[in-house]
Write a structure and sequence with these properties.
single chain; 163 residues; mainly alpha; 5 helices; 40% helix; 0% strand; extended
Amino acid sequence: MTLLLPHLKPVPQRQAAPRATAPPIVRTLPVRPLPAPPPLDALPSAADVQGLGRALFGCAPEAYANLSPEDRAHCPKPGVNTPRSTEDELYPRSHAKDAATWQEDLDERHHDSTACFGAALVAQCMVEAEQAEHQRAASVRQQIESDKRKAQMPAAPPVPRSR
C-alpha cells in the first residue's frame, strides 16, 4: 500500500502592523539609609561559635564513638532526642470507608486451594478446602454486617442520676 501526498505550498504569513510604542515608565525609588550595624557586644562570642561548630560537625552520631570522653560529655548521646515511631506511623490505618469488607474481598481472592497433594484424594481435598473457605468467608461477612449494625444504632440515652 502506497500513500501519496500532494506537495503543500507554503502559506504566506501576514505581517502584523507596527504598533505605536508608548514611552517607558520610569520610577525612581526613594533612597533609604542602610541600617546601623549591630554593636560588638551583640555578636556571638568565640565560645558560641565553637559550640555551634561542635554541634554541627563534632557530635555527629557516626563520629560519636571516636570522640574522647571529654568531648562526649559536651555532646548528647546518639538517639536520645529521636522520637520513636508508633505502630500507626509504621503501618498506617486504611482510609477506606469500609476497610473490613475490602480486606475480606482481598482474602477471598487470594484463597489458596492448591494446598492439596497426592493424586488419590485431590478432588475431595479441594472440595473440603473450598467448603472451609466458604464457611470462613460467610462468618467474616456476618461479623462485618453485625459490626455495621452496631455502629449505626443510636446511642443509649443517658441514665438520670438518682439523688
